[in-house]
Amino acid sequence: MSLVIIGSVAFDSIETPFGKTGKIVGGAAAYASLAASYFSKEVKIVAVVGDDFPREDIEDFHRHGITTEGLQVKEGEKSFFWAGKYQQDLNTRDTLVTELNVLADFDPVIPESYQDCRHLLLGNLTPSVQRTVIKRLRKRPELIVLDTMNFWMDTALDDLLDVLKMVDLLTINDEEARQLAGEYSLLKAARKIMKMGPRTLVIKKGEHGALLFQENKVFSAPALPLEEVFDPTGAGDVFAGGFTGYLAKTGDISFENMKTAVIYGSAMASFCVEKFGTERIKNLSPGEINARVNQLAELSSFSVSSF
Amino acid sequence: MSLVIIGSVAFDSIETPFGKTGKIVGGAAAYASLAASYFSKEVKIVAVVGDDFPREDIEDFHRHGITTEGLQVKEGEKSFFWAGKYQQDLNTRDTLVTELNVLADFDPVIPESYQDCRHLLLGNLTPSVQRTVIKRLRKRPELIVLDTMNFWMDTALDDLLDVLKMVDLLTINDEEARQLAGEYSLLKAARKIMKMGPRTLVIKKGEHGALLFQENKVFSAPALPLEEVFDPTGAGDVFAGGFTGYLAKTGDISFENMKTAVIYGSAMASFCVEKFGTERIKNLSPGEINARVNQLAELSSFSVSSF
C-alpha cells in the first residue's frame, strides 16, 4: 500500500542554545519520508533538489527503502536553503536565510509508478503545488493528509483554503489552528476547520501532546516529558510522516486506528528533537520505537471506577 | 478519614469577556472544600472571615457536609476582598482590588476535633500561615498537600521554601514550576522541586491537562477540550480540593491511586470554569462527576501493539 509524500528536500543550517550545524539535510519530505519508512515499505517522494545535493544523501533515502523516482535533480541549480536560530526557550525561532532556489518554480512530476498510491501526504509546501499533486494523480488516494503552517495562512490563504477542500485530514499546530479558524478555543477552532474540508483534524501541541478530531469524536494524546528539546526542527514533519506511515502500513483509516497512529507519530517526533536535523530519525530500530510507544501508553494510563 | 483544608474564604468580584459579577463567595478554602465535599464526608475548614460574610453562605458549606468549627468570624471586621479582570484569552488577569482585611493578621485556630485529621490540604495562602497550621497539628497527617502560586515565590520565597520541606505533595502550574526551579523543561523542573521537599508533584497545565511526578514515575492527564472557559477563577483550588478529597475518600495514597485522583481533580476543575465563582461546583451530582471522569477516560484511551 504505497504512500506518496510531497514536500521540500533541502539544506538547513540550524542554531539552537545547544549548538550550531553546518549545511545539513532537511525539508518536510526528507523528515516525513524517513519517519514513514519505519512503517511503510513503499514510501515514494516527490520533491526537487539542485545538483549540489549530495548523492550519498539520496542514497540514505534508498537505504530506508524510499523510492526517489519523483525526486527531480536540477542540473546547474541549487537546492532550497534555510537557516534559522532558535531562542532560549526553543519555542520561537528567527529565520536568518531563505534561499528558494529550485523551489521557486517547483513543478512536481508524478512518475507512472506513483499513480496507484493509496495514501498521500502533502508535506508543508506552497498550497498551489500541493494542489497540483492532487490533480496529477489520476485516481484519488484513499487518504489525503495535508500538513501546512502559518506562513501559508499569511501569504497564500486563498490557495490554502482551496486545497483544504480537497483533503481528508489536516495536521497543524495549536497557534495555527487558532489563526486559521479565528477562534481561541481549540474545540471551536476544530469544528470550524472541519467545515473547511478535512473530515479529520490533528492539532499538534508540542510538549503538550496532540488532539485528534473527527465529527464529534476527540482524542487527546500525551507527549513524553523530555529532559531537553535539543532541536525542534522537523518535529512536525516527522509527526506527519510517522502518523501517515502507520496508517499506510496498517491500511486502516478508522478513528480508532488514527488514535494509535497519533501515538506513533508522537513517538517519532519525540526522537526527532533529541538530535540535530534528521540524525536521530535516520538511525532508529523498531525496538526503540516500540519501547517509546509503550512509554507513552504507560504515561497516560489510569483506571477509574464510579465513586 | 477527615480532611482539613486551610485557605481563604473571601469575596471576589470577577470580570471576564462574558460578564461581570458583584461580590460573590470565593477564596481557596471555599473552592477546595466544596470540591472535596463530593468525595469526603469529613471536610473541615480553617479560615477567617469578617462579620460581613453572609450566614447563608456559611450554611452552604454545612449543606455540603463541611465542618466550619475552624472558621473564625471576626466581629467588626471585613472579609478578604479581591477584584480581578480577565483578558480576552482568559490566560492573563489583572488584579483591580486586593483588600486583605481579616487576612492581614490571620492566626489559624485548630479546633480539638480537627487534631486527628489524616489528610491536610494547605490551600493557596501566605506560606508562614500554612506552616503554622502544620505546627499546630499535634500528630502529623498522613498526607500534607500544599497548593501555592507565583505571588508567594515573588514575595515570600524563604517561607515558601521552608514550608515545602514539611509537605508531601505540591500542586502548582507550569509557569510556577519553571519559576520555582529555574528550569524550562518541566521534567528537569520537577526533579529539582522534588528535592526541595515534596516527594510528589502535580503540575497543572490548564487546557493542556496535568502532570503527576513521583520519583522516576510520571503520569500525564488529559484536559477536557472545552467549548468555552467562562471563568477560570478557582479552577486550581478546585483541582486541589477534588484531588485531595478523592485521596481522603479512598484512603489510598499510592501513585496508582493518585493518578485517578488527578483525573477526578481535573474533572472538578472542568466544571468550575463553566460558570462564575463557585456556582457550578456548588451544584453537582455524583452522576455528573462520574460521567465527566468517564469522558476523560474515553478521551485519552488508545491501544497499541508492536508493529
- Count the E strands of chain A: 14
Number of separate structural domains of chain A: 1
User: Cα-atom Rg of chain A, whole angstroms?
Assistant: 18 Å
Can you give the helix content of chain A as a percent range?
Answer: 25-40%
Terminal Cα separation of chain A, in Å?
47 Å
SSE run of chain A: EEEEHEHEEEEHEHHEHHEEEHHH
Amount of beta strand of chain A: 15-25%
Q: Stretches of chain A where pLDDT falls below 50 for ≥5 residues?
A: none
Average per-residue pLDDT of chain A, rounded, comes to 96
The greatest inter-chain interface is formed by:
A-B, 48 and 47 residues
Q: Number of DSSP helices of chain A?
A: 10
Query: Can you tell me the CATH topology of chain A?
Result: UDP-N-acetylmuramoyl-L-alanine:D-glutamate ligase
**CATH architecture identity of chain A:** 3-Layer(aba) Sandwich
Spell out the CATH superfamily of chain A. Answer: Ribokinase
Could you give the order of strands across the largest sheet of chain A?
A: 6-5-1-9-10-11-12-13-14
Oligomer: homodimer
Major β-sheet profile of chain A: 9 strands, mixed
Principal-axes geometry of chain A comes out as: globular
Tell me the structural class of chain A: alpha/beta
Please report the first level of CATH classification, the CATH class of chain A. Alpha Beta
Overview of the structural elements:
The structure is a homodimer of 307-residue chains. In chain A, α1 runs parallel beside α8 and α6 crosses α7. Chain A has helices at 28-36, 55-63, 127-136, 150-155, 157-164, 174-181, 186-194, 235-250, 255-272, 286-299, and strands at residues 3-6, 10-16, 19-20, 24-26, 43-50, 67-74, 81-86, 93-99, 119-122, 143-147, 169-173, 200-204, 210-214, 217-221. The first copy, chain A, has a nine-stranded mixed beta sheet with strand order 6-5-1-9-10-11-12-13-14, sandwiched between helices. The longest helix of chain A is centred in the last third of the chain and has 18 residues, at 255-272. Chain A has 307 residues and is of the alpha/beta class. In chain A, β9, α3 (127-136) and β10 (143-147) form a beta-alpha-beta unit. Chain A has a single domain (3-299), classed as UDP-N-acetylmuramoyl-L-alanine:D-glutamate ligase, CATH 3.40.1190. Chain A is globular. Chains A and B meet through α7, β14, α9 and α10 of A and α7, β14, α9 and α10 of B. Chains A, B: GO terms for molecular function: kinase activity. Chains A, B: This is Sugar/nucleoside kinase (Ribokinase family). Chains A, B: InterPro entries: Carboh/pur_kinase_PfkB_CS, CARD, PfkB_dom, Ribokinase-like.
